[in-house]
Amino acid sequence: MQFRLYIGSLLDITSTDLEFAKEVMIKQFSNFGNRQPFTFQDVFPMKESLLHIGKDGPHGYGWKEIRSIVSPVFTTGKMKLMFTTIHERIETLINVLEARIQKDDCIDIY
Predict the structure, then answer these.
(1) Domain limits for position 95
(2) What's 59's DSSP letter?
(3) pLDDT per residue over 15-43, tens digit each?
(4) Is 15 exposed, middle or buried (0-12, 13-18, 19+ CB in 10 A)?
(5) Which SUPFAM superfamilies has this protein been placed in (predicted)?
(6) E-strand spans in the chain?
(7) What are phi and psi of 45, to 5 degrees?
(8) Which terminus of the chain has fewer CB atoms gathered within 10 Å of its CB, N or C?
(9) How many CB atoms lie within 10 A of CB 57?
(10) How many domains does the chain have?
(11) Is residue 93 within 8 Å of residue 101, measured between CB atoms?
(12) CA 4 to each of CA 12, 15, 25, 37, 67: distance values in angstroms, whole numbers, following the listed order
C-alpha cells in the first residue's frame, strides 16, 4: 500500500511495500538525501504530542507558556460560535467527497 500526503507544499510518500522502501533507503539513498524529519521541536518543545512538552526546546517554552497562548482560542463561547460554521463546512466536504467517490475510485484530497 502506498499513499501521498502533502504537508504544505512538501510531498510525503508513505508505503508499506518493502521493495519500495529498500529502493529508496538503500539503492537510491543518494537521490533522497535532503529528507528532513517531521518535528515540532524547533518551534515548541513537543516530542510526540502535547503531553510530552518540556522546557528543553530552543525557546524554553513549557506547558504553562503554551497553554497561555493556546487557551484563549478555545474558550467555551468561541467554541460555541465556531460550531455551526465547522459543522456546515464538514457537511459540505462530506457531500463533495461522496460525489467524487461516486465518479472515481481514487480521489486526491490535497
Answers:
(1) 75-110
(2) T
(3) 777 888 788 777 877 776 666 555 555 55
(4) middle
(5) Cytochrome P450 (SSF48264)
(6) 2-7, 10-15
(7) -80, 55
(8) N
(9) 18
(10) 3
(11) no
(12) 6, 9, 17, 16, 33
* Nine-digit cell string for 78: 468561541
Tens of pLDDT, residue by residue over 38-48, are 555 555 555 55
Please, what's the b/e burial string for 37-56 (b: 16 or more CB within 10 A of its CB; e: otherwise)? Answer: eeeeeeebbbeeeeeebeee
- The pTM of the whole model exceeds 0.85: no
Helix, strand, coil fractions of the chain, as percent rounded to 5? 50, 10, 35
C-alpha cell, 31: 537521490
1 and 34 fall within a common domain: yes
- Residue 36, C-alpha cell as written in the block: 528532513
Work out the angle at residue 96's Cα, subtended by the Cα atoms of residues 92 and 102, and round it to the nearest 5 degrees: 145
